[in-house]
Each structure stands twice: as structure tokens, then as C-alpha cells.
Write a structure and sequence with these properties.
Largest sheet of chain B: none
Number of domains of chain B: 1
Radius of gyration of chain A: 23 Å
Distance between the termini of chain A: 64 Å
Distance between the termini of chain B: 14 Å
Largest sheet of chain A: 9 strands, mixed
Number of helices of chain B: 3
Radius of gyration of chain B: 12 Å
Number of strands of chain A: 27
Strand order of the largest sheet of chain A: 2-1-12-11-13-14-15-16-17
Shape of chain B: globular
Largest interface: A-B, 35 and 29 residues
CATH topology of chain B: Non-ribosomal Peptide Synthetase Peptidyl Carrier Protein, Chain A
CATH superfamily of one domain in chain A: ANL, N-terminal domain
Oligomer: heterodimer
Structural class of chain A: alpha/beta
Number of strands of chain B: 0
Helix content of chain B: 40-55%
Structural class of chain B: mainly alpha
CATH architecture of chain B: Orthogonal Bundle
Chain lengths: 502, 85
């Protein structure tokens, strides 16, 4: 039997382990045997459509058992999963479809977009534990499974020109990250993982792979995600760990500690990613969860979990994002690729087993990211004497809103062809509530400020953009400021028209 | 407390956090299926309502029925306040 995601995370379980719970949702329990059967039948349901080896299939569904089953079924068939959040900007979806040319879209709910590719509904009968509208026949056999070097996933991240770029990840790379996480977090067969991060991103998806690798159990929230839901569910389901972006943590820190008392004592670990937290906030979190460890991870869509800080083990390093994980090398480099002296800032560059080998249908973009053999992250950092890396900011205009990173161009691309607008610019400004890190603002130069319809413009953006990209303020300005070399300057726009001037 | 006060606060929250003007949404606009707020917005609005009105949600309260639209959400909060929760 070849090594791959389905084999290593599910089929390799022995008879005793197959009887253990793998997924909990409300009152439903799916054992490992249930999940294996569902994946096998799903391969017949999905694979009967056509031969999927090497084909891209868009997975557009919210978190749930359906996502997990479909992910394993597609990758077991040698197909490549392209996950898209149900609420994604129309232009972004169009660009992803143009790049990947998917065989079809697999979805659970009605889609809010329509493109000229087939859409296949995929749902599970939780009582009968079978795929809806399927006769129950089994699909792929173990001997036909793909190998480790087969592409399994294309994760799209933001591109600086507004065109998203899809990082290709193989079965080997995804298994490598699963192994790293499982070992660092200390997951075992008793691990109960609370899934609150979207599975369409590596943050959430790799918690699924690492938990299943460890023989643990995945738990979906009992209701809409909120701080009360989190606290109640941790107690109700004896949750051991979860992954979160900083906004959730920041709101958790504002919660009355009395509400957590005697409810969270089984929690062993919290993994946090995507945006910086202050060392003071991490310290307060450690006080709030005295029996839990807090891991802070630094990674990219192209290279997840590159660095991890074990905050209980290194309380004096809370200002850093930790050290490289197994198999990862880090270089803090100057613009010529030379290693910077200890303590001095430069770009964070990576070499890693889990690093993507390329962007889908975009070799030039990937080549531009490789500098002297190292992957260029666009992040600024510095290294201390003990090898801990501090994150110091970005070399570009990337916006981080609530843990979602994107370039202004991805919002601007929605605006560029609209009538009545002479010029425009999107920029990230600090979130005044200190929850989302940054929020997007848009500066508009209307052709005629007296007749420009801001309300229609705002409504159009609400329909076109996911909420993390929706400009929180639309500011009419006389002109977009330029640098001395004549380039539009976001820094100057923020200085002239930003929050301090409102 | 007048029911409109809770509604006013919710409209204010949606304007401050999601850039919605009162003319763009109504009391019956679907907050979730209409993609007015995302998952982070639910977390924020729960905290905002708890802080603003001193009420307390539990996990069962944070459901799709209560968060369907501004009417259902304000009715839930007003019910909590009436019951002294």
C-alpha cells in the first residue's frame, strides 16, 4: 500500500483504533471505521464523474464532516483539492477558476456564484452514515492510491497584483506538517480537537490531519462560533486543544475570567497564528488557561508551521515567533541575499520540506519568490543569539485583517472598471478596536464628487467582497498622493487622509 | 428599555464594523445567509451586546434562529433583559 493522506491518516489504523471516535458533531459520532467507509463510498460518488487523477476540484463548503470526507476522497483518487470559502469575492473566484480549470465544484449549500463549470452537490446522511443520493458502493481500492509526490492541494493566497497565486502542496508536504504539529503540540489518541478555524486554510486543515495522524477526535462547534460557545463546548466535549487566529484570542482576553472557571481545565493547548499578539497578551492568556500551553506559529500558505514558539517553555521569548520546526531552515537576509548579523533586521527567507514546490500555472511568480535558493516571504524579521526569530513587519503593503492576509490590489481589482471613479487606492490602517490588527480603507477620487453615488458603490462592494476585504471607510479625496518617483503612495495617503485626519 | 434601543445598537455595530448604512439593510435582512456578518462578526456582536446591555449568552443562545436578522436578535436580547439575565 502506497503512502498518502488516506493511507497514513485513516487506513493504517488497526482494528481497535477503527472503533474509536474520529469526528463529533452535535449528537453524532463518526468512528474511524465510519470515516473510512464514507471516504470509500465518496470516491465512488465523486470518482464516477470522471477519472480525477491530476484534476482540480473546487471544494466550496463550510466546516463540517462533508469537507473532511470530500477532501480525503478527492485526494485518494489522485485529484487536487482547491478549497474556496463559500463567501469569496467574485473576481477572486473567477481568477481561481481561470487558473485551475477545475473539473467541477463540490458544494453542500446553494452557491452564490455561477460559472460555466459543473457543480455537484455533496451531502451526508448523519443517521445512516452514508452519502446522499448514492447507492453505497465502494470506490477506490488501496492498491490504486496515489503516491507521496502527488499534488493533493492548491491553496490560494493573495498576489501583489490582485491575481491570487495557488501554492501546490503534495501528500508528502501535508503529511510532514501533520507530523510536525502532532509532535510539537503533543497530540495523542486522547486528543480532542475543537475545529473553529476554516478548513479552507492550512491553519484549520492541518489541525485535522495532525489530529487524525495522532488517532484523536475532531469536534465541530455545537452552535455558531462565539466566546460563550467556545467556553461551553470546551467543558461539554472535554476539548484538549484548538487553533485560533488572534482576534478570537483578543476577545477571549476581554472575557470575565469567572466565566472560564472550572470549565477549561482539560484544555492542554492553544495554537495561535496569522497575526502578532503582544507578549503581554500571551502572558495574560497563560494566566487565563493555567493548565494549557500556548503555541505561537509563524507560517505562510506556501509553508505552514515554519516556526513555532512554545510559550511555557520559553517565557522570556514571548516577543518572538519561536524557532524553526523540524526540517526548516531560516535565513534573515539583506537585499542581496547575505545573512544579516544577529539582532539586525532583514527579510525572513525559508528552506523547508513542507515548502511548496510551485504555484499552479504561474512558474514566473514562483521563480520571483526564490532568491539565491531561498524562499522569500516578504516578512521582515531578526534573529537572536539563541536562534529565536522576531517578526518585525512586512516589506510590502499586505493587509492583515482578522488573520486574513491580502494585498490591496485584490480589493482594487473589484473597483477598477466602475464608472464615475477617476482614481482609487486601498490601504490597511490599524484597527481602532485592536482586534483585527488592520482594517481596509478605500480612498476614492470621483470623476464628479457632487454626483458620485457612494451608497450604490458601497452596496456593490458589499455584494462583491468578503467581509474582511470590505473597506470600513470610503474616503473621498481630491487626488491620490504620489511618491517623488511618481508612484501612488499608500503611506502618504494614510498620513494625509487616514484615521488621524478624520 | 425601549426595543428600538437594542436595534439602534445593532445597526450602529453593523455600521462601525461592517460599513453598513441603515438604508442598506432592514430589520429582516438575513444576517448569516445574506453574508452581512461573518464568523468573526458573530463573535464580536455577542461580545458587543453582552458589554452594551449586561446580558449573558450561553452556547445554545448563539444559534442561527436568534441571529437570523435584526428583529430576531433584538427580540432575543430584549427577552434576556426582561428576564434579568
Amino acid at each position: 500500500m502506497s503512502e498518502n493522506l488516506f493511507s497514513d491518516l485513516l487506513l493504517s489504523k488497526n482494528e481497535k483504533d477503527l472503533g474509536q471516535p474520529a469526528v463529533l458533531l452535535e449528537n453524532y459520532t463518526f468512528t474511524y471505521a465510519d470515516i473510512v467507509n464514507l471516504v470509500r463510498t465518496a470516491t465512488a460518488y465523486i470518482g464516477s464523474k470522471e477519472n480525477l487523477a491530476g484534476e482540480r476540484i473546487i471544494l466550496c463548503m463550510p466546516n463540517g464532516p462533508e469537507f473532511i470526507i470530500a477532501f480525503f476522497a478527492i485526494t485518494a483518487l489522485g485529484g487536487i483539492v482547491v478549497p474556496i470559502e463559500p463567501r469569496t469575492g467574485q473576481q477572486r473566484i473567477r481568477l481561481i477558476i481561470e487558473q485551475t480549470k477545475p473539473a467541477f465544484i463540490l458544494h453542500t449549500d446553494s452557491l452564490n456564484f455561477s460559472f460555466n463549470i459543473p457543480a455537484v452537490k455533496f451531502s451526508i446522511d448523519y443517521d445512516l452514515k452514508k452519502i446522499d443520493n448514492h447507492d453505497g458502493s465502494m470506490g477506490i481500492q488501496s492498491e490504486n492510491l496515489p503516491g507521496l509526490e502527488t499534488a493533493a492541494l492548491i491553496l490560494f493566497s493573495s498576489g501583489s497584483t490582485g491575481t491570487p497565486k495557488g501554492a501546490i502542496l503534495t501528500h508528502r508536504q501535508l503529511l510532514k506538517i501533520a507530523t510536525t504539529l502532532s509532535e510539537v503540540i503533543g497530540m495523542d489518541a486522547f486528543h480532542r480537537e475543537y475545529l473553529i478555524a476554516p478548513l479552507t486554510h492550512s491553519g484549520g486543515l492541518q489541525r485535522v490531519t495532525s489530529t487524525l495522524l495522532s488517532g484523536g477526535c475532531l469536534v465541530f462547534p455545537s452552535s455558531l462560533i462565539s466566546i460563550p460557545t467556545l467556553i461551553d463546548d470546551i467543558e461539554k466535549f472535554s476539548i484538549n486543544g484548538f487553533f485560533s487566529s488572534p482576534p478570537m484570542i483578543k476577545m477571549l482576553l476581554k472575557t470575565d475570567p469567572a466565566r472560564l472557571k472550572n470549565k477549561v481545565f482539560k484544555l492542554k493547548s492553544i495554537e495561535i497564528a496569522s497575526a502578532p499578539l503582544t507578549s503581554l497578551e500571551i502572558s495574560r492568556l497563560l494566566e487565563l488557561f493555567p493548565k494549557a500551553n500556548v503555541f505561537f506559529q509563524y507560517g505562510l500558505t506556501e509553508c505552514s508551521r515554519a516556526l513555532i514558539l512554545d510559550s511555557r517553555k520559553h517565557p522570556d521569548k514571548l516577543h518572538t515567533v519561536g524557532k524553526p520546526t523540524d526540517g526548516v531552515k531560516v535565513k534573515i537576509a539583506d537585499t542581496d541575499g547575505n545573512r544579516m548579523p544577529i539582532g539586525e533586521q532583514g527579510e525572513i527567507q525559508l528552506k523547508a520540506e513542507q515548502l511548496t514546490g510551485g504555484f499552479w500555472d504561474n512558474p514566473d511568480e514562483y521563480r520571483s519568490k526564490i532568491k539565491h535558493g531561498w524562499f522569500s516571504t516578504g516578512d521582515i524579521g531578526k534573529e537572536d543569539e539563541e536562534g529565536f526569530i522576531s517578526y518585525c513587519g512586512r516589506v510590502d503593503d499586505l493587509i492583515n485583517c482578522g488573520g486574513n492576509s491580502y494585498f490591496p490590489a485584490e480589493v482594487e481589482i473589484e473597483v477598477k472598471d466602475l464608472p464615475g471613479i477617476k482614481d482609487y487606492m486601498v490601504a490597511g490602517v490599524p484597527d481602532p478596536q485592536d482586534i483585527l490588527t488592520q482594517i481596509p480603507w478605500i480612498f476614492i477620487v470621483p470623476t464628479n464628487p457632487d454626483t458620485w453615488d457612494m451608497l450604490s458603490f458601497r452596496s456593490y462592494l458589499h455584494k462583491s467582497l468578503p467581509s474582511h476585504m470590505m473597506p470600513r471607510k470610503i474616503v473621498i479625496v481630491p487626488k491620490i498622493p504620489l511618491t517623488d518617483s511618481g508612484k501612488p503612495s499608500r503611506k502618504m495617503a494614510i498620513k494625509l487622509y487616514g484615521p488621524k485626519n478624520q | 428599555m425601549e426595543p428600538t434601543e437594542v436595534k439602534k445598537k445593532i445597526y450602529q455595530f453593523l455600521e462601525d464594523n461592517y460599513s453598513y448604512q441603515a438604508s442598506e439593510i432592514t430589520d429582516t435582512t438575513d444576517l448569516l445567509d445574506g453574508y452581512v456578518i461573518d464568523s468573526l462578526g458573530i463573535i464580536q456582536i455577542v461580545m458587543f451586546l453582552e458589554t452594551s446591555f449586561g446580558c449573558e449568552f450561553n452556547a445554545n443562545d448563539v444559534n442561527a434562529d436568534n441571529f437570523k436578522n435584526i428583529n430576531t436578535l433584538s427580540e432575543f436580547v430584549e427577552g434576556q433583559l426582561k428576564n434579568g439575565k
